[in-house]
């Protein structure tokens, strides 16, 4: 039990307040002096610590992206900007990955540890996770697209483990979005963008208003409104993907096509489903099957490009309200309300229409277990020429396309009070946050029993789908609604200040207690639970927990130029137990321009509610099957079953950081940091490729010919994960008399190692610089050149991602090329209060590097890292009063 640890840390919090009060100077400050001290710009809290300090060179590496860079980056959303930072080294996801339940949402995963290991905060406090987990059921995450962009003052990215300060999920680091404070005035603006190759038209509008000065008026209110809309980009709108044929590329075939348009399967041979005139059903093409799936014979095939979305359409509307009211010279109340509505739509590329084929399942409504659905065309069906029940693969255009629409409504409401005395600050707050999701699929699903009846009695016209009676189609066609909701309620109290003097200075401290309640419910459409839907995609989660925590942190000046940080946090979870997270750091400044820092910590990640509950997932994807009877080592598309595990232990981590900071002049800064994260009890599933290679009948289901049908998996505590790397951050400013100010900055991350098992209980394998199990480029950098003179501003940003090894080699490709993207921004503010600007993303129209392991229905590149928008233009204006 962790109750004693919680009691001790809570006592430290109270003792800190008493010690601070006893250590006050006998000469009390005047009220005016206290107010001035309370809002001193030199006294700040930096992400990774709760102690206010004047020196922002902390014990941990923190990358700060300020308002100026936010506006001139060329990125129009918080998600786009955060994904571009160098510490986001791979193994991530974004809204272009529209084949899962988190379609249209975006997260950030630092250090290649996925988004569930990076904590996202808004003004230092948590927000509710997105209702649909990503990465199967494992990755619960905060949807960055639901957070305010125009109200943001800066982004602080802590690139070190911080469980001792923030608790779970801060294993890889913390992203803290900090909104504008004490803003007065009015800003509004709009922009319009479109791609050079067409499509993806984007419009934005914003309004930011602030009233009242906290110093003179005793209050301040900030209101921001934001609208963002973007059209959908489909595969047939780009030259690279519109044909769906990639056989001129390494490992490429007709990967964008489906051979399962209409055909019989007879003795392992493909026989096209033709009418009396020798024609395929309308919309299908008679062609050889081998270039698509390796089967001998011909088939009625479908080019899926016109029915596959590369980037979903998006409509986002956000409102943010923040207010502060001075109650007394030392006490102020504050509160905020955030509301966001996001809707995205995409065509489900891997199955844009319903296809009856082998390996299809449906739930048994009585047992709740999956059972196979036959793809045999009955012997008496008028379109069966064989006189016996014969396997078919047939795509039903007349049931409509699988258009997915994801609607998300999220909010956070917070109220608090804070105060400052001469030797300590205190703050208390309560908050509620939530996210409600609704996924609607308007077509592309079939009613199991009505379809079987129509095939048995021949009422479905398989040669001329348009001739089928509408009543028959209406009885078969299914549209579904999948709901989910995530909730977070909490309260906290914290105090920080100074305890007493040592010869080298005063001991700073911070302490606090927290409580939060989390819940996540994701339900199946009722048609799935009733056993009606064929090929059900299941993501059923129902979990909740309470979390209590207490923490304390001390900054101890040992020498005038040497500080030590010690911190500890105790967390108790109602669903699995407790965790204790200590941290120690040291900062030594032997010279005015040189600082050395080091830290070591233990942390944890609690099993997510989706991992740690009786969750069930059925999903569909592809995997290389070395035992395929028709084409060994070809990519197949089985059904994937994954279930949760209520006996999971939390992931335990040890993090180390060692760095040096050079500041030889006020315009020059260079920091170099080495990091290492060691993770035990890694929560995950077995590698699907390894499971298929193992070919255990308990996990791998095949039909009588040996064709892959299903793969079974389960969340479990695996062995370990180890990763390390180097961060380099540099900035240099040159001020001139006649030519303005020039600035060069760069953030670079080198991934040294990323070791994890490829299968449960297996040896650690190094994934760094390869796509062995996840794409993890070894090098990533963002470099920015900026110029400012009078009314002119311009900058050029270079985003670099190194190539990576193809493991295993696919189609003769052993390495994927590097990627370079240049974004250009230019602004002119020659009109009073007005700024006009233009941005060009991907100035050189660089295409994503070809990856032979990805050619599939969507695109021949890693769409977790890249997209196919190409060169993109944006123009806009801002007006400030």
What proportion of the residues form beta strands (DSSP E)? over 45%
Supply Rg. Answer: 29 Å
Work out the helix count: 10
Cα separation of the termini = 57 Å
Structural class: mainly beta
- Helix content percent band: under 10%
Mean pLDDT: 86
Domain TonB-dependent receptor plug: 61-174
Pfam families: Plug, TonB_dep_Rec_b-barrel
Main location: membrane
Subcellular location: Cell outer membrane
Q: What are the key terms here?
A:
881 residues, single chain, globular, 22-stranded antiparallel β-barrel, mainly beta, 10 helices
Detail the topology: elements first, then pairings:
Elements: H1 3-22, H2 31-38, E1 62-66, H3 67-72, H4 78-83, E2 118-122, E3 125-126, E4 152-158, H5 163-166, E5 173-179, E6 185-195, E7 202-211, E8 219-230, E9 233-234, E10 257-266, E11 269-272, E12 285-288, H6 290-293, E13 298-303, E14 309-311, E15 313-328, E16 331-347, E17 354-356, E18 361-363, E19 370-372, E20 376-377, E21 390-396, E22 403-420, E23 424-446, H7 448-457, H8 470-476, E24 477-502, E25 505-522, H9 526-529, E26 538-559, E27 562-573, E28 577-591, E29 594-605, E30 616-620, E31 623-625, E32 634-636, E33 639-643, E34 651-665, E35 668-680, E36 683-684, H10 688-694, E37 700-702, E38 708-714, E39 716-717, E40 720-735, E41 741-757, E42 764-766, E43 779-789, E44 792-801, E45 804-810, E46 813-816, E47 819-831, E48 834-841, E49 872-880
Parallel strand pairs: 2-5, 33-38
Antiparallel strand pairs: 1-4, 2-3, 4-5, 6-7, 6-49, 7-8, 8-15, 9-14, 10-11, 10-13, 10-21, 12-13, 15-16, 16-22, 17-21, 18-19, 20-21, 22-23, 23-24, 24-25, 25-26, 26-27, 26-30, 27-28, 28-29, 29-34, 30-33, 31-32, 34-35, 35-40, 36-39, 37-38, 40-41, 41-42, 41-43, 43-44, 44-47, 45-46, 47-48, 48-49
């Amino acid at each position: 039990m962790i109750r004693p640890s919680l009691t001790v840390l809570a006592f430290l919090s109270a003792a800190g307040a008493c010690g601070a009060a006893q250590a006050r100077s006998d000469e009390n400050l005047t009220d005016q002096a206290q107010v001035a001290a309370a809002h001193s710009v030199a006294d700040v809290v930096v992400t990774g610590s709760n102690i206010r300090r004047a020196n922002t060179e902390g014990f941990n590496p923190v990358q700060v992206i300020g308002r100026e860079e936010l506006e001139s980056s060329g990125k129009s959303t918080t998600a786009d900007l955060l994904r571009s930072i160098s510490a986001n080294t791979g193994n991530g996801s974004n809204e272009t990955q529209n084949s899962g339940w988190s379609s249209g949402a975006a997260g950030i995963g630092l250090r290649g540890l996925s988004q569930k290991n990076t904590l996202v905060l808004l003004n230092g406090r948590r927000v509710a996770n997105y209702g649909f987990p990503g990465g199967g059921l494992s990755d619960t995450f905060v949807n960055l697209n639901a957070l305010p962009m125009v109200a943001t003052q800066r982004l602080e990215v802590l690139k070190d483990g911080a469980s001792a300060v923030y608790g779970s999920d801060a294993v890889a680091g913390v992203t803290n979005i900090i909104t504008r404070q004490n803003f007065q005035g009015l800003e509004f603006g709009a922009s319009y963008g479109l791609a050079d190759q067409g499509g993806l038209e984007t419009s934005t509008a914003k309004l930011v208003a602030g009233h009242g000065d906290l110093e003179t008026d005793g209050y301040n209110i900030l209101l921001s409104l934001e609208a963002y809309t973007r059209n959908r980009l489909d595969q047939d709108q780009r030259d690279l993907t519109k044909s769906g044929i990639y056989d001129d590329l390494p490992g490429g075939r007709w990967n964008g096509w489906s051979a399962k348009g209409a055909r019989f399967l007879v003795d392992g041979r493909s026989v096209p489903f033709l009418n009396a005139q020798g024609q395929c059903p309308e919309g299908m093409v008679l062609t050889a099957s081998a270039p698509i799936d390796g089967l001998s014979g011909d088939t009625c095939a479908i080019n899926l490009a016109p029915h596959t979305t590369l980037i979903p359409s998006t409509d986002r509307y956000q409102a943010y309200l923040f207010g502060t009211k001075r109650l007394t010279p030392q006490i102020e109340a504050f509160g905020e309300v955030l509301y966001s509505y996001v809707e995205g739509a995409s065509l489900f590329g891997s199955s844009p229409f319903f296809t009856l084929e082998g390996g299809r399942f449906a739930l048994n409504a009585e047992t709740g277990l999956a059972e196979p659905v036959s793809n045999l065309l009955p012997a008496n069906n008028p379109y069966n020429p064989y006189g016996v029940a014969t396997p078919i693969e047939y795509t039903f255009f007349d049931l409509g396309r699988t258009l997915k629409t994801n609607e998300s409504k999220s909010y956070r409401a917070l109220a608090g009070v804070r105060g400052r005395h001469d030797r300590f600050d205190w703050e208390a707050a309560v908050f509620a946050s939530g996210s409600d999701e609704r996924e609607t699929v308007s077509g592309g699903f079939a009613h199991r029993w009505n379809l079987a009846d129509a095939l048995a009695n021949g009422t479905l016209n398989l040669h001329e789908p348009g001739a089928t009676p509408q009543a028959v189609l209406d009885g078969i066609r299914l549209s579904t609604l999948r709901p989910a909701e995530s909730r977070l309620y909490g309260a906290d109290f914290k105090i920080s200040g100074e305890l007493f003097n040592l010869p080298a200075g005063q001991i700073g401290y911070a302490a606090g207690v927290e409580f939060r309640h989390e819940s996540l419910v994701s339900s199946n459409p009722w048609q799935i639970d009733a056993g009606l839907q064929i090929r059900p995609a299941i993501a059923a989660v129902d979990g909740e927990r309470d979390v209590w925590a207490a923490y304390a942190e001390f900054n101890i000046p040992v020498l005038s130029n040497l500080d030590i940080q010690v911190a500890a946090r105790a967390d108790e979870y109602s669903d699995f137990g407790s965790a204790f997270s200590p941290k120690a750091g040291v900062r030594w400044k032997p010279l005015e321009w040189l600082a050395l820092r080091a830290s070591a910590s233990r942390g944890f990640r609690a099993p997510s509610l989706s991992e740690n509950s009786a969750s069930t997932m059925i999903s569909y994807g592809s995997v290389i099957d070395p035992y395929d009877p028709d084409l060994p080592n070809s990519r197949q598309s089985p059904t994937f079953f994954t279930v949760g595990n209520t006996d999971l232990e939390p992931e335990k981590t040890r993090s180390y950081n060692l760095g040096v900071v050079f500041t030889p002049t006020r315009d020059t800064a260079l920091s170099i940091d080495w990091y290492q994260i060691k993770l035990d009890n890694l929560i995950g599933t077995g590698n699907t490729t390894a499971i298929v290679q193992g070919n255990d009948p308990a996990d791998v289901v095949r039909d009588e010919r040996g064709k892959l049908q299903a793969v079974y998996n389960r969340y479990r505590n695996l062995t370990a994960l180890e990763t390390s790397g180097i961060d380099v951050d540099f900035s240099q400013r040159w001020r001139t008399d006649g030519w303005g100010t020039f600035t060069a900055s760069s953030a670079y991350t080198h991934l040294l190692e990323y070791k994890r098992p490829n299968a449960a209980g297996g040896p650690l394998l190094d994934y760094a610089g390869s796509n062995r199990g996840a794409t993890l480029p070894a090098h990533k950098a963002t470099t920015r050149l900026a110029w400012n003179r009078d009314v002119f501003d311009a900058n050029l940003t270079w985003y670099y991602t190194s190539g990576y090894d193809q493991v295993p080699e696919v189609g003769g490709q052993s390495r994927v090329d590097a990627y370079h993207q240049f974004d250009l921004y230019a602004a002119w503010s020659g009109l009073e209060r007005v700024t006009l600007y233009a941005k060009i993303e991907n100035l050189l129209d660089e295409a994503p590097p070809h990856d032979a392991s990805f050619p599939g229905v969507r695109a021949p590149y890693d769409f977790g890292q890249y997209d196919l928008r190409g060169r993109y233009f944006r123009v806009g204006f801002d007006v400030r009063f």
